[in-house]
Amino acid sequence: MISVVDDDTSVRFAIENLLKSRDYIVHTFASAEKFLRSPQLSETSCVITDVQMAVMSGLDLLREMRAQRYDAPFIFMTAFGNDRIRASALNRGAVGFLAKPFAGHMLFKHLDAALEQHRDEADA
């Protein structure tokens, strides 16, 4: 299951449709807080999240999930990318970082890597 967290409805809808076109099970959330309170939290194989959101950022979401011992890989996306934010996300363990707008094949490239990593860690 892929969880998409973004406060922009159109982005959530577009990514959900893209992922469902490849038969992924997708759940979307308008905020990090809603995702953290959801039953899907423990079932998530990968989190695709915006970096900048109103209350809790994507980086804060990653930190909180790791503190709760959830190890799902993260793919970050942002419309306001810069090298500092990208480096911070990757240093904290993100598998991918995408600047909006991005091509669908780039999302799938990062998603394939994230899911492979998740499988390898589960097998270890």
Structure notes:
This protein has 124 residues and is an alpha/beta fold. The protein is built from five helices and five strands, in the order βαβαβαβαβα. The chain has helices at 9-20, 32-36, 58-67, 83-91, 104-123; strands spanning 2-5, 26-29, 46-50, 74-78, 96-99. It has a five-stranded parallel β-sheet, sandwiched between helices. Helix 3 (58-67) links the parallel strand 3 (46-50) and strand 4. It is globular, with a radius of gyration of 13 Å. It starts with a strand and ends with a helix.
Ranges where pLDDT stays below 50 over 5 or more residues in a row are: none
Approximate strand percentage: 15-25%
Give the helix/strand class: alpha/beta
Number of helices in the DSSP assignment: 5
Q: Average pLDDT value?
A: 92
**Major sheet characteristics:** 5 strands, parallel
Alpha carbon gap, first and last residue: 20 Å
Helix fraction bin: 40-55%
> What is the general shape?
globular
- Got a strand count? 5
Strand order of the largest sheet: 2-1-3-4-5
**Strand/helix succession:** EHEHEHEHEH
User: Radius of gyration in whole Å, from Cα?
Assistant: 13 Å
